[in-house]
Write a structure and sequence with these properties.
GO terms for molecular function: oxidoreductase activity, acting on the aldehyde or oxo group of donors, NAD or NADP as acceptor. InterPro entries: Ald_DH/histidinol_DH, Ald_DH_C, Ald_DH_N, Aldehyde_DH_dom. This is Aldehyde dehydrogenase domain-containing protein. This protein has about 525 residues and is α/β, with parallel strands linked by helices. It is about 40% helix and about 20% strand. The protein contains 15 helices and 22 strands. Strands 14-18-19-13-12-20-21 form a seven-stranded mixed β-sheet, sandwiched between helices. It has a five-stranded parallel β-sheet with strand order 9-8-7-10-11, with helices on both faces. A hairpin with a 7-residue loop joins β16 and β17. The radius of gyration is 24 Å and the shape is globular. It starts with 19 loop residues before the first strand and ends with a strand. The structure holds nicotinamide-adenine-dinucleotide.
């Protein structure tokens, strides 16, 4: 059971043959059909994706259900040994996984190797530690222990009440494409650490690293049926998984429109459901901030990972007296720092967006801003030798990668607060910047959204900082920072950004059922 073998991953993309992973075996989809898949930097076809359907989901859920009694009855220490082995194998294969992630998703190899892949390993180690050592108070303000005695006047003194957190059963884990492997591991680690078994349905747009993970799971000795990964579309594979009668719990990360469907389906069938959805994150930059720090962080916040980040700083409100200075500094910083191009080149800041369809969606918002009379600037680095041409709607032609889906770093000003460009999630390298006058107006603009995922506030006045941070309706608010991360803290959104909190102890809470045991002492 505790074997941790080395794993040999395919050497190159042409060798990747994506198959479903069900009951510890690699199997073709029952329909025999596959979806096309493209490298976004070149537009060339890469490993096709199984177009799985209900029959494949049935097989995977059956395998997960039959593995559940064995896995949930194993000790935390035994499960943790396997989780730590998964983490070690991810670390050992970081460079290869980062390269495949980049070729499938478009993000730079450097960012995948520095952020995505190491974080995957960290999640497995974190939850291995939780189920063996428990949670220290310093790691969280929420106390979650396996068994707590309660002192309650309503309970007779001869009776002891204790709570017990037990694994839920078979979980459905459904993930998006912007951090492909990271999103899978963020859910998978806590899910199986506490004893659930699962069926993972990764996004059909970036499935390669989830497939490679199956080889790591196998080498780490994950017993058959504990983790099943079924590839395919949301309609053909995702929906049957959410609806499956033997699935007790659904953890979904994706867009808000899909989240509403998944939430309605799962909720109507009384499943535990967690929805981590989109964002249109505001930042409020006051005139008394450290402007240089604010500008460099806002450039990163707008364009990191091609702007394909749910927490992207996509609405930046700047106090009027520093508005022009901020914009000048922002333009200068982008032109100095942001090179767009080959994601394998270490000098590239960001690569292509994920698909041709997504490029068309992003540029449709750019055209809308132009039609509405906003000022639209494409901040192309004059020293970026790879950029051959910028189209009227911001598409870039990159030398040697003419078939890729590249978009210029786009700055939009003079756009109305009510515009769809300001209100909807664009999920690309496009940022809207607008002025505000008073603190009250700033807060009102920041909160004028259907979303509530993340926000940041910039001022050197500590009292104002705390006052404003408290008034913003977001799951996470950063003060003089953006995306400083603590995995022991809860993550999730308000409104259309989601209904739940995961990460750290909050994941342990979500992935378990809470029971109360009333014991009568004789
Ligand atoms: P999406 O909603 O299109 O798809 C997400 C997943 O749901 C995919 O695996 C897809 O196949 C599946 N799916 C689609 N329809 C389904 C259905 N009817 N039933 C079940 N499953 C279905 O999202 P996307 O375009 O892949 O991802 C981008 C979105 O994800 C953005 O809105 C982004 O903000 C959001 N996101 C949120 C977070 C967060 O933690 N809040 C993190 C990353 C991404």
């Amino acid at each position: 059971m505790n074997k941790c073998c080395a794993v040999t991953l395919p050497a190159k993309m042409q060798d990747v043959n994506i198959q479903n992973y069900i009951n510890g075996e690699w199997v073709a989809p029952t329909s025999g059909a596959y979806l096309k898949n493209y490298n976004p930097a070149t537009g060339m076809e890469i490993a096709p994706i199984p177009d799985s359907k209900s029959a494949d989901i049935d097989n995977a859920v059956r395998a997960a259900k039959s593995a559940f009694p064995m896995w949930s009855n194993m000790s935390g220490v035994e499960r943790a040994t396997i989780l730590n082995c998964i983490a070690d194998l991810i670390d050992q294969n970081c460079a290869a996984l980062a390269t495949f992630e980049s070729q499938d998703q478009g993000k730079t190899v450097a960012s995948a190797a520095a952020i995505d892949i190491p974080k995957c390993a960290e999640y497995f180690r974190q939850f291995a530690k939780y189920v063996t050592e428990g949670i220290r108070e310093t790691e969280s303000s929420m106390k979650l222990v396996c068994t707590t005695s309660s002192i309650n006047k309503m309970v007779p003194s001869s009776q002891r009440a204790t709570t017990q957190h037990v694994a839920s059963g078979v979980a459905a884990l459904i993930t998006p494409w912007n951090f492909p492997l990271l999103m899978v591991c963020e859910k998978l680690a806590p899910c199986i650490a506490v004893g659930n078994t699962c069926v993972v349905k990764p996004t059909e747009l970036t499935s390669v690293t989830s497939y490679l993970l199956t080889h790591i799971l196998n080498a780490a000795g994950v017993p058959k049926g504990v983790v099943n990964i079924v590839f395919g579309s949301g309609v053909n594979a995702g929906e049957p998984l959410v609806k499956h009668r033997d699935v007790r719990l659904v953890s979904f990360t994706g867009g808000s429109v899909t989240g509403a469907k998944v939430g309605a389906l799962a909720g109507g069938l009384f499943k535990r459901v967690s929805l981590e959805l989109g964002g249109k994150c505001p930042s409020l930059v006051f005139s008394d901030c450290d402007l240089e720090h604010a500008i460099t962080t806002h450039v990163r916040g707008a364009y990191q990972n091609q702007g394909e980040v749910c927490l992207s700083a996509s609405r930046q409100y700047v106090q009027r007296d520093i508005y022009e200075k901020f914009l000048d500094g922002f333009r200068k910083q982008v032109c100095q720092e942001v090179c767009v191009g080959d994601p394998a080149n270490p000098k590239t800041f960001y690569g292509p967006v994920v698909t041709k369809q997504h490029m068309e969606k992003v540029t449709s918002y750019i055209r809308l801003a132009q039609e509405e009379g906003a000022k639209v600037e494409f901040l192309v680095n004059p020293n970026d030798p790879a950029v051959m041409n910028v189209s009227a709607d911001g598409r870039l032609t990159i030398e040697g990668l003419e078939g890729g889906y590249f978009i210029a770093p786009t700055l939009i000003t003079g756009i109305k607060q009510s515009s769809r460009v300001m209100q909807e999630e664009i999920f690309g390298p496009v940022v809207c910047v607008a002025p505000f006058d008073t603190e009250e107006e700033g807060v009102q603009l920041a909160n004028d959204t259907q979303y509530g995922l993340g926000a940041s506030v910039w001022t050197e006045d500590q009292k104002k900082l705390e006052r404003v941070m408290r008034q913003i309706n977001s799951g996470s608010v950063w003060g003089n920072n953006w995306l400083a991360w603590d995995d022991c803290m809860p993550f999730g959104g308000m409104g259309c950004s989601g209904t739940s909190r995961e990460h750290g102890p909050w994941s342990l809470e979500f992935y378990t059922e809470t029971k109360v045991l009333y014991t009568h002492t004789i």
